[in-house]
Write a structure and sequence with these properties.
Layout (H helix, E strand, L loop, with lengths): L1 H35 L2 E8 L6 H16 L2 H7 E5 L4 E7 L1 H8 L6 E4 L2 E4 L4 H5 L9 H4 L7 E6 L40 E6 L2 H6 L21 H10 L3 E6 L2 E6 L7 E6 L1 E2 L3 E3 H14 L3 E4 L1 E2 L12 H11 L3 E5 L18 E6 L3 E9 L4 E5 L1 E2 L5 E8 L5 H5 L7 E5 L5 H10 L4 E5 L7 E2 L5 E5 L1 H13 L4 E4 L3 E4 L6 E2 L19 E4 L3 E4 L6 E4 L2 H18 L5 H10 L12 E2 L5 E2 L2 H4 L14 E2 L4 H10 L4 H8 L20 E6 L3 E9 L6 E7 L4 E6 L2 E3 L6 E10 L7 E9 L5 E10 L7
Helix pairs in contact: 2-3, 8-14, 9-10
């Protein structure tokens, strides 16, 4: 009996083992089949080897045709040929074909298609970008009338008043782009303001195997923006003057972009609010380089883990080629804050933007029965006042109470930690509640409620005050008034909670973000009946900076993208325009540091006259690539010529950035920087140091004298630590000052590592 039982048991074990083995083999087979299914891959070939775009495309077919067996097969497989700003192509390939192509000596690297995500009436006045001033950046550039801004986003709504071309002269002669007709969009809708509008959907089509049904997704196969994100960003950067713009009476004023007379070229690459595929983005950037844009604005981003710039990032490579052509690339830093190391778009040739609040807020007054009024924040209530009525606490009610109608006609109060505010509001409305007050953590978003009842949001501190009133009052009552706009004091600037933070997770010695700008509650154009809506995100902060860059590019046409970035960083505010220190929302709130806002809050009043710039060009970017450990062959292909990194490998700490970030300091080191005088000849600057806590700094020379024949000066900074244990980052600054006319400030971020975790 026992032996028989053992035998049966063992036989069952054998059967189970065989079954599991078959399942495992079947899974491997399925994975193998999936790997052989063709997908879109992008093949990067670096710098163009021909000036004629046709020859560039022919060379792409030569490479792909040799793999697939014929030029005809190559034409069927290839979806894009990148032939203007750089060389490369996107094609439908199997994984084995992609691996084989990656071994081709002409190929920099091969990457699979990736989906990236989309990350006003007050902003310009808040930053001092006034059009009526007799001097200044806006005045001196005719509000950017000769600048061309490329917006790579979800398209454009041409009917918005923000894109009227009243008073604009002819389109700049250098413009080579076009407007493309499509569903709901006619090329004739373009004008002297909206000078370009195209769309890119081959990457999208591949995902849906050619069966993307635009109408079902509330989309249009054209440059027409059905999402609103691209229109909002374009009008924030370069919207024309529109009087009495508002959202249902809130934020009323004159809407305008940072560069209100700049020209807009819209490149639609994002669909259905979330689908932005890298092959489409690259083709848009390739065309933008051909078309003649001065600045590219991309409110798009990736999530952690980020792609390495040369070996894996399609986007960073395209941006590199744009910068090498003198086109400044401005990108959103992402909305994954306030956690550290969440910043995206971190390549040193990109200007990466964080988001702040500004001095405009929207408060929803809540008056309790004891005549104490508290102010709800962040949510918008546009409706009739709900007069004094009974105030009840959610936790005091049971499901049966709600079903019995005990909440009907009353205002409901609740604390919310893990439920959606819209969900709880919808529930409350379904039970006859006339208003809801929600105590929740701040999120720094300005958005209307969707439930159709009076609603207000407060933080936990105010929530506890309301709860105390509820629990100590026999018949508690409250009323909720419509949201009101408050401008100026007492609203101090802070880095938004959602704004992604440094340090840079790919190269910690490269400070990111570079700069911050208002990105909370930005009122700008949208394709809806109301015409203007509030949006929040680093997506909204990015076009604020883009417009300022366009003005600066027109004012200083000989400045490189790096010089422009330097001017933004070194002139930035560390206090808001009212003089208050800029805070950073988080847990807990703190004074902002370089990982929150880079150099600080953008200061357009000073940016055109920084005095000195930390410039970078071809050699400095190659220095970075070598210091980051990229192989000579990859760098050579990227540059389009043979290049060998020097030995010993240069230090990333010496990349000529307008910042010094030292992630691993254990012993004394010497860092080098070079500044270029863009101010008066004969200027003399002295060093002013604010050292990070426990860090010793010695600058040599301490004085910089720019004579008639001296345009650039190199200085060194010796850095050592007094800490005897590992520390977190401490922050300071180095400022070159010429007795007040110019204060050229760069942030310092230093972390002591007695024991280095990187071996």
């Amino acid at each position: 009996m026992g032996l028989s039982s053992l035998t049966v048991s063992n036989n069952r074990k054998h059967i189970v083992v065989v079954f599991i083995s078959l399942v495992f083999i079947l899974k491997i087979a399925l994975i193998s089949c999936a790997n052989q299914e063709s997908q879109i891959y992008t093949v990067h070939l670096g710098k163009r080897q021909h000036d004629d775009p046709k020859l560039v495309t022919d060379s792409h077919h030569d490479i792909l045709g040799s793999l697939l067996g014929s030029k005809e097969a190559s034409r069927e497989s290839m979806i894009y040929s990148y032939r203007h700003g750089f060389s490369g192509f996107s094609a439908k390939l199997t994984s084995s074909q992609a691996r084989e192509l990656s071994e081709n000596p002409h190929v920099v690297h091969v990457t699979r298609s990736k989906n990236m995500k989309l990350t006003t009436t007050r902003v310009s006045d808040y930053l001092g970008l006034t059009s009526t001033a007799p001097t200044g950046l806006v005045h001196d550039t005719d509000m950017g009338s000769d600048a061309i801004i490329g917006i790579v986003d979800s398209g454009i709504w041409p009917g918005s008043k923000s894109f009227n071309d009243n008073g604009l002269g002819p389109i700049p002669a250098r413009w080579k782009g076009q407007c493309v007709s499509g569903e709901g969009f006619n090329a004739s809708m373009c004008n002297r303001k909206l000078i370009g509008a195209t769309y890119y959907a081959k990457g999208l089509a591949r995902k849906y195997k050619g069966a993307f049904k635009a109408a079902e997704k509330d989309e249009a196969m054209s440059p027409l923006d059905k999402v609103g994100h691209g229109t909002h960003c374009a009008s924030t950067a370069a919207g024309s003057f529109v009087q009495n713009a508002n959202y249902l009476g809130l934020g009323q004023g004159t809407a305008r972009g940072s560069a209100p007379r700049a020209r807009v070229a819209a490149y639609k690459v994002c669909w259905n609010n979330e689908e932005c595929f890298t092959p489409d983005i690259l083709k848009a950037m390739d065309h933008a380089m051909r078309d003649g844009v001065d600045v590219l604005s991309l409110s798009l981003g990736s999530e952690i883990p980020l792609d390495f710039e040369v070996d894996r990032s399609d986007f960073a490579i395209a941006a590199f080629h744009a910068v090498m052509k003198g086109i400044t690339v401005v990108c959103a830093g992402g909305n994954d804050g306030p956690e550290t190391q969440t910043i995206s778009n971190v390549a040193p040739w990109i200007i990466t933007v964080g988001a702040t609040t500004m001095d405009r807020e929207f408060f929803t007054p809540i008056t309790l029965g004891n005549n104490v009024t508290v102010l709800g924040q962040e949510g918008l209530y546009i409706g009739e006042e709900v007069g004094f009525t009974d105030l009840i606490y959610f936790d005091d009610l049971t499901k049966a109470d709600f079903e019995a109608g005990k909440a009907k006609g009353k205002i409901l109060f609740t604390f919310l930690t893990d439920r959606s505010t819209d969900q709880i509001a919808e529930f409350a409305k379904s039970k006859g509640v006339v208003g809801i007050i929600i105590a929740t953590k701040p999120i720094d978003l300005i958005e209307p409620g969707t439930a159709g009842i009076a609603s207000a949001r407060v933080d936990y501190e105010i929530g506890m005050d309301i709860l105390l009133y509820l629990q100590t009052t026999k018949f508690p009552k409250a009323k909720i008034s419509p949201t009101k706009t408050f401008v100026g004091r007492p609203s101090a600037t802070k880095v938004a909670r959602f704004s992604s933070r440094g340090p840079n997770s790919i190269s910690p010695a490269i400070l990111k973000p570079d700069i911050a700008a208002p990105g909370v509650g930005i009122l700008a154009a949208v394709p809806t009946g109301v015409g203007y809506e509030f949006m929040s995100g680093t997506s909204m902060a990015t076009p604020v900076v883009t417009g300022i860059v366009a003005l600066l590019k027109q004012k200083r046409p000989d400045w490189s993208p790096a010089a422009i970035r330097s001017a933004l960083v070194t002139t930035a505010f560390q206090t808001d325009p009212s003089g208050e220190p800029i805070a950073a929302e988080g847990s807990p709130r703190k004074i902002a540091d370089p990982f929150d806002y880079g150099g600080g809050l953008v200061n357009p009043g000073k940016v055109a006259d920084p005095g000195l710039v930390y410039d970078m060009g071809h050699d400095e970017y190659v220095h970075y690539l070598c210091s980051a450990g990229y192989e000579d062959i990859s760098i050579s292909k990227l540059l389009g010529k043979v290049y060998t990194c020097p030995s010993p490998t240069p230090s990333m700490l010496d990349v000529n950035l307008p910042s010094i970030t030292i992630p691993y300091l254990s012993q004394e080191i010497t860092i080098t920087r070079t500044v270029t005088n863009v101010g008066p000849v004969g200027s003399v600057y002295k060093a002013v140091i604010e050292p990070p806590l426990g860090i010793n700094l010695q600058v040599s020379p301490k004085t910089l004298e720019f004579g008639p024949n001296t345009k650039k000066i190199t200085f060194t900074v010796k850095v050592s630590t007094t800490h005897r244990v590992n520390t977190d980052y401490h922050f300071g600054s180095l400022t070159w000052t010429d007795n007040g006319a110019h204060n050229v400030r760069i942030p310092l971020s230093v972390r002591t590592r007695v024991l280095n975790f990187k071996i």
